[in-house]
Amino acid sequence: MSDNRNVWIFVEQEEGQIADVGLELLAKGRELADTLESQVWALVLGYQVAPLAERVIHHGADRVLLANHPELELYRTLPYSRVIIEQVQAHQPYIFLLGATPVGRDLAPRVASATNVGLTADCTDLQIGDYLLKKEKREYKDLLYQIRPAFGGNIIATIVNPKTRPQMATVREGVMQPNPPDLEFSGEVEIVEPSFEPSDFALHVLSREIRQPTVKLKDAPVIVAGGGGVSSEDESRLIEELAHILGGEVGASRAAVDAGFFSHEHQIGQTGATVRPRLYIAAGISGAIQHSTGMDESNKIISINTDPDAPISKIAHYKIVGDIAEVLPLLINALREKSR
Amino acid sequence: MTYNSIVLVKQVPDTRTVTGDVMSKKGTMNRSAMPAIFNPEDLNALEMALQVRERYGGQITVLTMGPLKAADILRDALFHGADNVILLSDRKFAGADTQATAYTLKSAIQKIGDFDLIFCGRQAIDGDTAQVGPQVAEKLNLPQITYTESIASMDGDEIIAKRAFDLGSEIVKCKLPCLLTVVGSADRIRPASARKRIENKLAAIPSEYPAIVEKWAEFETETALAAYLTERNLEITVWTAADLDVNEDQLGLSGSPTQVYKVNYVVLESTESKEVPPTKEGIRELIQELIQEYIVG
Ligand SMILES: Cc1cc2nc3c(=O)[nH]c(=O)nc-3n(C[C@H](O)[C@H](O)[C@H](O)COP(=O)(O)OP(=O)(O)OC[C@H]3O[C@@H](n4cnc5c(N)ncnc54)[C@H](O)[C@@H]3O)c2cc1C
Predict the structure, then answer these.
(1) Residue B217's pLDDT is what?
(2) Which domains occur in chain A, in start order?
(3) Is any atom of ligand 1 closer than 6 Å to the C-beta of A310?
(4) What is the pLDDT of residues B84-95, one digit of tens each?
(5) pLDDT value for A185
(6) Is B7 in contact with B46 (CB distance < 8 Å)?
(7) Ligand 1 pocket, residue A149 CB under 6 Å
(8) Local confidence band at B27 (pLDDT 50, 70, 90 cut-offs)
(9) Atom 39 in ligand 1: which residue has the minimum CA distance?
(10) A119 CB near a chain B CB, below 8 Å?
């Protein structure tokens, strides 16, 4: 095992656009590397992606491993894993992080299996800390604590990989905060020449469709979210109207999505988006842990609920005990009045 | 041309129905209050394998690793139409993380040998990792098609399939053999057939024989039952570590590179909260306050 303590980040790109989670991971990676007094290395794979290297450096990478090749234009498991496994084996990083995106979750297990290392999926937090392995009476210093919800979100588990390197994890989109670019930050770019095998091309992409997200929850300053308390189209329209007046976006709990009032793209929580708006209005949402985990860092939370003891009231800054059918119109009218 | 499939399945606690009975006020969990079920996306995977068999022919072998109780889902697989089922069960397999699980499954798949397609659900609801499929594929040196929603066609040693993921989809062509992970938006499992249910009612693993002998008067001894089951090919195969060509250091808890350092039960922390009366006046004051604090513009 090499003794460098470098933190590697797979910076995912799609048609030359860096995925948000790539920037989020660079920020987290920088923080971890600073704690470890080591470097951040970023892996950028694609075709005609050389211009991305500078941006990646400004977001905190000391070194960019850049593989630029026509066969890497569209993500495919085998060519991408070939390049990455080779680099991981050659440099033996200490930590390797990928986004828990469809691509990251396809790629990470491949790399972990080939290098025989542990991998933790879908982390929501990462920290550096020590671990006492009782069986060996041995303390492992400065391991990566890989923190993730488990068992349907009812528990939070901290996982470590004491013995294998790199310590690998995929990280949920939206839970880490990206840093603004630092134009002063300098780093190196290393060009990686892929050496493919014919078997790497067992799969061809015949066609591909990528939709632009129509719901922009992540950057919305205000979110008005409906839950199981929404029982009619009229009520769901009130939610939309309030969100509109506030210049915000519509969110939903799973109960409201399952009931068909909102599409899955609106879902907030463990199996939806993670958000931290300036204002979150939870209308008819009980505040189950799988929901609150996606919104409890909102700056201000207002709950509207007929049940004064619903769990949401524990995290709400303002609690309105009442029926959404009555309270939503009051809010809408009060806001209309003030803008007059 | 016919295609042989292996379907990897898992028995999981039904974490989707975590209710008040399961979580205590203190936040601890009562696992016995959670029913054990066939992992939902594994059923989509089994259905996809059944459709391939319908169109092209071939055999379907369903493989699971788990405690002896997991024989329940193998019986289910037989009711839905699987040809063969195998249970990997051994204390040495217990506590495996995804890496050790994939290693064990890979060894069993190599023992089965003859296959063109491996299907598994995208992820199991008790861990949501989606790692085992790709890890098995890597260990067998196979290409993988993750998030498969449907198979368009199979022709010679090639498959054309549709992948569906957040905000996108792809049509891909891949060389066989390959591994597919199947998403929940794929076709639902067909209902179990009544005939298969009757035929396979007694399918069992040896540890279940005593209970069957007790229940069914026609079998006087376990030996008689065993003979009956063998004759009808109703013994569910159980493989232990000794049946596989494995390095025991790579099995179970001790073969798992990841370790659980700690587990915290989630308890919401209380925030100072202000009660706002649901009246015109109350709401107006709330809006005023939010404007003053620049929360609302
Ligand atoms: C693995 C897993 C993942 C999950 N992921 C998510 C996720 O990502 N996001 C998510 O949201 N959930 C998720 N869930 C589901 C979660 O556990 C809850 O079931 C869900 O959040 C409940 O939604 P709800 O509170 O809106 O609905 P309910 O539980 O139905 O609660 C409705 C609330 O509205 C109140 N109410 C009813 N009528 C009115 C009215 N007229 N006016 C005002 N208040 C009213 C009630 O008092 C109650 O508090 C997940 C669950 C599991 C097991």
Answers:
(1) 87
(2) 3-201 (3.40.50.620), 222-339 (3.40.50.1220)
(3) yes
(4) 999 999 999 999
(5) 96
(6) yes
(7) no
(8) very low
(9) A229
(10) yes
- Tell me which residue in A121, A212, A338 faces B128 most closely, judged by beta carbons: A121
Q: Chain A: give the shortest CA distance to residue B77, in Å.
A: 25
**Which residues, in sequence order, are CB contacts of A43 under 8 Å at separation 6+?**
A8, A9, A10, A11, A64, A65, A67, A84, A87
What DSSP element (H or E) covers B260? Answer: strand B259-265
Report chain B residues whose CB lies below 8 A from the CB of A81: 138
Q: Is the pLDDT of residue B30 over 70?
A: no
Q: Is residue A307 lining ligand 1, measured as CB closer than 6 Å?
A: yes
| Cβ pair B274:A102 closer than 8 A | no
Asked if A7 and A94 touch (Cβ cutoff 8 Å), the reply is: yes
pLDDT score of B205 more than 90: yes
pLDDT band at B110 (very low <50, low <70, confident <90, very high): very high
C-alpha distance from B22 to closest chain A C-alpha (Å):
10
The CATH topology of domain B5-259 is: Rossmann fold (3.40.50)
Residue B118 has pLDDT above 60, yes or no: yes
pLDDT value of residue B265: 80
Cβ(A258) – ligand 1 distance below 6 Å: no
- On average, the pLDDT of chain B sits at 92
Q: Is the pLDDT of residue A152 over 80?
A: no
Residue contact B268–A211, C-beta within 8 A? no
Say if A319 is an interface residue toward chain B (CB within 8 Å): yes
A162-186 mean pLDDT: 95
Query: How many C-alpha atoms does B237 have within 13 Å on its Cβ side?
Result: 14
Residue A304 CA, closest ligand 1 atom number: 43
* Contact check, Cβ <8 Å, B278/A338: no
Ligand 1 touching residue A293 (CB < 6 A): no
Query: What value, to the nearest 5°, has the Cα angle with vertex B277 and ends B276 and B279?
Result: 125
Chain A residue nearest residue B296, CA to CA: A246
The DSSP result for B146-180, as a single string, is: EEEEEEEEEETTEEEEEEEETTEEEEEEEESSEEE
Residue A1 near residue A53 (C-beta atoms within 8 A): no
Please check the confidence at residue B233 and state whether its pLDDT lies above 70: yes
Q: Enumerate the domain spans of chain B.
A: 5-259
**Six-digit token pair at A122?**
């879908």
Could you report the per-residue pLDDT of A43-75, keeping only the tens digit for each?
999 999 999 999 999 999 999 999 999 999 999
